[in-house]
């Protein structure tokens, strides 16, 4: 088991090293931050001085070495646009993104699992066919179109919910939350639904497929032959086994929700990490862009490493292969 753990941690470290190199090299050539930061009539000397101040006058290898050393020490640099430490910017924007992801996950699980069970138990019913048809529409519609339609209906036409922003928040130390205010909760609904739609459809289809597979297994037939209650068979035996892959997929999808919340946050002007990244791209704010990619990469590496280790704990065959 120790060998499996060390192997996974070594692979995680190697992946993060590659991610850091890719993020640095890729964002190093997206544009010239001096062109955005210098005044319109700046002289050549002023621009050269600004390059020296930013540290981008050195060779790329030297810049990457400094970037890697600072990153390992927890220093992600200073934002070119805000002139503030990138770690502070991420700490300020992270609560908004995490709350949005929490709402999206709750919505997708609370709706996706029951709808998946419904489609599995009555696959030829009218309700099941309607749900599957709507799921195809939902998964095929781009996120920004869904967001705009929701804004048009519930914010502009009906006036029930706000169309942008986070609403009123409560400061709890370094964490700011909108869960404790009515305006904050209302502001979460539209972007939460928009972000949850794809994951909801994925979970619904996964539960449906797993339930159909489990219901056709031998032990379910044996349970029916023994005369066990139908509700017990469906929800105690079949659903419990069908949810195992759903838990795994949901864990991995949380990382995807954080990574791909960019579009949702842009449509609703949600002050999270996705909007911070879009603003950084428009301003060629290299430290913020690199830090965002590093954070997302680290999140995926942590989730995948934990899943691999849990699989090795549950399934002894994986430990035997790694031995």
UniProtKB/TrEMBL annotation:
Annotated family: Belongs to the binding-protein-dependent transport system permease family.
Topology of this chain in the membrane: Multi-pass membrane protein
InterPro entries for this protein: BPD_transp_1_N, MetI-like, MetI-like_sf
GO terms of biological process kind: transmembrane transport
Domain ABC transmembrane type-1 residue range list: 94-311
Transmembrane segments: 12-31, 100-121, 133-161, 173-198, 242-270, 290-314
Gene Ontology annotations for the cellular component aspect, listed alphabetically: plasma membrane
Organism listed in the record: Microvirga alba
Protein name: ABC transporter permease
Pfam families on file: BPD_transp_1 (PF00528), BPD_transp_1_N (PF19300)
Location of this chain's protein in the cell: Cell membrane
Keyword annotations from UniProtKB, A to Z: Cell membrane, Membrane, Transmembrane, Transmembrane helix, Transport
Superkingdom, taxonomy of origin: Bacteria
CDD domains assigned: TM_PBP2
């Amino acid at each position: 088991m120790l060998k499996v753990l060390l192997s996974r941690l070594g692979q995680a470290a190697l992946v993060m090293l590659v991610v850091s190199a890719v993020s640095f090299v890729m964002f190093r050539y997206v544009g010239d931050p001096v062109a955005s930061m210098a005044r319109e009539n700046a002289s050549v000397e002023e621009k050269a001085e600004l390059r020296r101040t930013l540290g981008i006058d050195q060779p790329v290898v030297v810049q990457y070495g400094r970037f890697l050393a600072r990153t390992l020490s927890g220093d992600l640099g200073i934002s070119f646009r805000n002139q503030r430490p990138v770690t502070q910017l991420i700490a300020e924007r992270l609560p908004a993104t995490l709350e949005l992801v929490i709402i999206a996950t709750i919505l997708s699980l609370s709706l996706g699992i029951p709808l998946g069970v419904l489609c599995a138990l009555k696959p030829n019913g009218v309700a099941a066919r309607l749900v599957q048809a709507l799921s195809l529409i939902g998964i095929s519609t781009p996120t920004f179109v869904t967001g705009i339609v929701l804004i048009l209906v519930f914010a502009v036409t009906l006036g029930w919910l706000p169309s942008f922003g986070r609403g009123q928040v409560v400061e709890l130390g370094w964490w700011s939350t909108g869960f404790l205010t009515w305006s904050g909760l209302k502001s979460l609904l539209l972007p939460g639904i928009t972000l949850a739609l794809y994951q909801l459809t994925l979970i619904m289809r996964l539960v449906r497929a797993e339930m159909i597979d489990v219901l056709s297994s031998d032990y379910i037939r044996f349970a029916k032959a023994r005369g066990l209650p139908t509700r017990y068979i469906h929800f105690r035996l079949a659903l419990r086994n069908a949810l195992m892959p759903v838990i795994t997929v949901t864990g991995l999808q949380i990382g995807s929700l954080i990574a791909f919340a960019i579009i949702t946050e842009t449509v609703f002007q949600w002050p999270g990490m996705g909007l911070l990244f879009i603003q950084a791209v428009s301003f060629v704010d290299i430290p913020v862009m690199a830090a965002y990619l590093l954070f997302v990469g680290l999140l995926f590496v942590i989730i995948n490493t934990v899943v691999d280790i849990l699989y090795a704990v549950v399934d002894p065959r994986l430990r035997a292969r790694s031995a």
